[in-house]
Amino acid sequence: MERLSDAVHVRRVEKVIAGGEAANSALAASWRRSGCLHALDPATTAPSRRLSAAEIAQAQQKLGALRHASQGSLDRLFLAVGGVGCSVLLADRNGVVVDRRGAPSDDRTFDRWGLWTGAVWSEHCEGTNGIGTCLVDARALTIHRDQHFFARNNLLSCTTAPIFDEHGEIAAALDVSSCRADLTEGFVQLIATAVADAARHIEAENFRLAFPDARIVLAPTGERAGKSLLAVDHDDLVVGATRAARLALGITTASLTRPIPAADLIGRAAAGHDDFESAERAVVQRALARAGGNVSKAARDLAMSRATLHRKLKQLGLHR
């Protein structure tokens, strides 16, 4: 697609801002936010905002475990797209790039375009762009070339997915950006799929790190594997849930302050069997399973005599 001239792009953006298209177009709504709410000028040639080294370190530290959880996914994503002139960026919830991957041969180009650690890509600073608009809309998207608000960003193609923390709140954005002129629609779609998958892997890894002593289970919500996760403690009570699980199962931050039996959420409790006998049966079965069916060992683990366990097995209808 041929790039619009800066003057033509500016007139187009101003026309949309002045019109009533925001209600029907997410892109137009973002352009209106950029022009009206943030008072940005699409024709500006001012350089993008960069943070100091101290500010970058502070932003990295604030992101904490999630940045650590992202490292493997950033590396794998870069292996997939870095060879075709793309840069991989991780930005915090304020649009600050806290980590990046890029080919050394492209460093000067990426630095010039602001695809660099410490650059601020919030809508407040850069208008409509992949990272900033993704963080505002809380959804995966691509801002391709002249969909950017600033005319000076019209050579960029940015594909971004949000990353939600262990509390279900938006915490970061994962972005793949390129200034190549030959990116096809099909290739952009492949990038979008890779970015979305990497973002979900980061969420899952961060969720596991947030609940190191819990059992992580996949909630049966029909979502893609790895999105709807529950953290369950040793009493089989839910102590955490990813955003996808919260949305699918109606879990809120307030509801997690009270004990929620995992069986109530994942459909394992049959009507009429959520009682003491069922719980006792489950404890005995787990002990036997861990003992490999050895009744004597299971009895020792349960701190009871072998005879008592045999009576319990008969009482519960468990025939070994």
For the CA atoms, what is the radius of gyration? 26 Å
What oligomeric state best describes the polypeptide chains here?
Answer: single chain
Stretches where pLDDT is under 50 for at least 5 consecutive residues are: 268-273
What is the C-level CATH assignment of the largest domain?
Alpha Beta
Number of strands: 8
CATH architecture of the largest domain: 2-Layer Sandwich
CATH homology-level superfamily of the largest domain: GAF domain
Q: Compute the separation of the termini in Å.
A: 71 Å
Number of helices: 13
Structural class: alpha+beta
The domain count comes to 3
Mind summarizing the main beta sheet? 5 strands, antiparallel
Which H/E pattern describes the elements? HHHHEEHHHEEEHEEEHHHHH
**Lateral arrangement of strands in the main beta sheet:** 2-1-5-4-3
Strand content: 5-15%
Taken from the alpha-carbon principal axes, the silhouette is elongated
Helix content: 40-55%
Mean pLDDT score = 90
- By CATH, the topology of the largest domain is Beta-Lactamase
